[in-house]
Specification:
Elements (H helix, E strand, L loop, with lengths): L1 E5 L5 H10 L4 E5 L4 H7 L5 E8 L3 E2 L1 H9 L3 E9 L3 E4 L10 E4 L1 H5 L2 H5 L5 E4 L3 H11 L4 E5 L1 H6 L3 E4 L9 E8 L17 E8 L5 H11 L4 E8 L7 E8 L3 H14 E10 L7
C-alpha cells in the first residue's frame, strides 16, 4: 500500500501513517501539502496523511481548501501528541548552536523556548525530519533541528533539549484521505464504526442563515465538535463553513442533512469515519 505524507521518514506524518496503517506500507514523501492531492488524483498512491489542525496554532486552512478542491474523501482521523526535541550532531551542546532549522509550524510551537536564546537564528524549512537528515548527511556543525525523537534515532543525532514546545500538551489532528468520494448509503444504517462526519456548506445571503443551520443540528441532538469558516476566494467577504459532528443516531443525522440541504446554497459531505481520541 502506497501512502503519501508531507515530509520524510521520521516526520510526524510518518508516525501517523504507521500508527494508522501499520508498518507494511510504502511511503511516498512529499515536501509540500500541494503535492499530495495530485498523487491521489493520478492514482500514484492509495491513501494519504494530511495535518489539518494543531491545538496551539489552530486550523491549517490551505489544507481544507485542498481537500475541497480535489474532492478528496476523509477516511479517518488521528490525533497525535507532538513532542518537539532540539537535536544536533553528537558532542555538541546548546552553546554550540548558532542556527535552528525546522518546519514553520514547529518553530511557531517552540517560540517561547528561543526567547531565552536570542543568539540562535531560526530558519524555516520544509520538513522537520528532512532537516535532521541533512544535518547528519552533511555533517553540519552549529546547526540544530526541531524534530521528533524518532528522527533523532533514525539519523543518529543527539537530543540537546527534550520537549521544547511552548505548551506541553500540544497535539495535532491528521486526516486520512483517499481519492474516491464514496456516496453514503442513506437508505440503510451506517457502519457502526463510523460515528463522525465532516461536511462543508455555504449559507444563503440572508440574515440569520448560520443560526438556522446551527438550530437544525441542535433540534436533532447532533453535537458539533468543530466549526471553521474559510473565505471563498472568488467571492470577497463570503465564507464557506466546515463542520465536524458526532453521529449518535443515523436517522437523526440523515434528517438533519435533508433539512440542511434546503437551507444552504451548497452542501458537501467531506467524509464519514470513525472518531479518534487523543491518547495521553
Amino acid at each position: 500500500m502506497k501512502v503519501a505524507i508531507q515530509g520524510i521518514k521520521g516526520s510526524f506524518h510518518d508516525i501517523v501513517a504507521k500508527q494508522f496503517f501499520g508498518n507494511a506500507i510504502e511511503l511516498v514523501e512529499c515536501m509540500s501539502f500541494t503535492e499530495i492531492p495530485v498523487l491521489l488524483k493520478n492514482n500514484q498512491v492509495d491513501s494519504a496523511v494530511m495535518a489539518i489542525e494543531n491545538s496551539i496554532a489552530g486550523a491549517i486552512l490551505p489544507n481544507y481548501a485542498l481537500i475541497d478542491e480535489y474532492n478528496l474523501n476523509i477516511e479517518g482521523e488521528v490525533y497525535l501528541n507532538i513532542h518537539h526535541h532540539l537535536m544536533a550532531l553528537k558532542s555538541q551542546n546548546l552553546e554550540d548552536i548558532k542556527e535552528v532549522w525546522s518546519h514553520p509550524m514547529a518553530i511557531l510551537q517552540c517560540r517561547k523556548f528561543f526567547r531565552n536564546h536570542a543568539n540562535i537564528k531560526l530558519i524555516e524549512e520544509k520538513d522537520t525530519a528532512e532537516v535532521a537528515k541533512r544535518i547528519h548527511d552533511e555533517n553540519l556543525k552549529g546547526i540544530a533541528a526541531i524534530a521528533s525523537k524518532e528522527a533523532s534515532i533514525i539519523f543518529d543525532l543527539e537530543v540537546i533539549r527534550d520537549d521544547i514546545q511552548t505548551i506541553k500538551h500540544n497535539s495535532t489532528r491528521f486526516f486520512i484521505l483517499k481519492k474516491e468520494k464514496k456516496i453514503p448509503n442513506h437508505k440503510s444504517k451506517m457502519n457502526g464504526t463510523k460515528n463522525k462526519a465532516s461536511i462543508k456548506f455555504i449559507t444563503k445571503h440572508n440574515k440569520g442563515s448560520l443560526a438556522e443551520v446551527l438550530d437544525i443540528f441542535a433540534k436533532h441532538d447532533i453535537n458539533l465538535t468543530k466549526i471553521q469558516s474559510m473565505p471563498i476566494i472568488d467571492k470577497p467577504w463570503s465564507y464557506a463553513f466546515f463542520i465536524d459532528l458526532i453521529i449518535d443516531d443515523f436517522k437523526l443525522y440523515e434528517n438533519a442533512l435533508h433539512l440542511l440541504g434546503k437551507k444552504v446554497n451548497h452542501l458537501k459531505i467531506l467524509g464519514e469515519y470513525h472518531e479518534n481520541s487523543l491518547e495521553e
